[in-house]
Write a structure and sequence with these properties.
The protein is mainly alpha-helical. It has helices at about 1-10, 10-30, 30-35, 40-55, 60-75, 85-95. Helix 2 (about 10-30) crosses helix 5, helix 2 crosses helix 6 (about 85-95) and helix 4 (about 40-55) runs antiparallel to helix 5 (about 60-75). The longest helix has 19 residues, at about 60-75. The chain is globular and about 55 Å long.
């Protein structure tokens, strides 16, 4: 397995590489989410439901949905998800 891992990387390395663009997209939306009022942030739930009803997949809405969750967490709990937490969560959500 040493040679295969050296060429292709371990499973964990491949997963992090696959998820990294999603985390970067979530991070790029942070400023946009901070500008939303509480009412606008709450309205994102209906927006996501409509997007899914209109044929979008969970993977399509995942970065924006996570950006909303991260912002809600900052506002309500005063805690912001770290990138590593998003990577872990995205690994179980996105496929």
């Amino acid at each position: 397995m040493g040679l295969i891992n050296a060429i292709f990387g371990s499973y964990s390395e491949r997963e992090v590489k696959r998820i990294r663009p999603i985390v970067e997209k979530i991070n790029s939306l942070e400023g946009e989410m901070e500008k939303l009022s509480d009412k606008e942030l709450t309205a994102k739930t209906d927006y996501f439901k409509n997007e899914l009803a209109n044929g979008k997949s969970l993977d399509d809405i995942l970065p924006e949905a996570y950006a909303v969750v991260r912002e809600a967490s900052k506002r309500v709990l005063g805690m912001r998800h770290f990138d590593v937490q998003l990577v872990r969560r995205c690994c179980f959500t996105s496929r």
